[in-house]
Amino acid sequence: MWEELGKAFCLMLVFEGIIPFLYPQRWRQLVANLALVSDQKLRMMGFFSMLLGAGLLYLIN
After folding, report:
1. How many other CB atoms sit within 10 Å of the CB of residue 47?
2. 10-60, pLDDT tens digit by residue?
3. CA torsion, points 16, 21, 26, 27, in degrees to nearest 10?
4. pTM above the 0.70 mark?
């Protein structure tokens, strides 16, 4: 299980790095805009992201 978790973490880092690598200016603007979003909206986006990830993981397995 730890090996799979490590692989998943590495893949996450690859996916997280694609946008800043390809579009650094847009990524910087996105991060600046995220600073203006309220905590409640960020929490809701994080919650739905977790639900989507868990749901997709369930469907895959």
Report:
1. 10
2. 999 999 999 999 999 999 999 999 999 999 999 999 999 999 989 988 998
3. 30
4. no
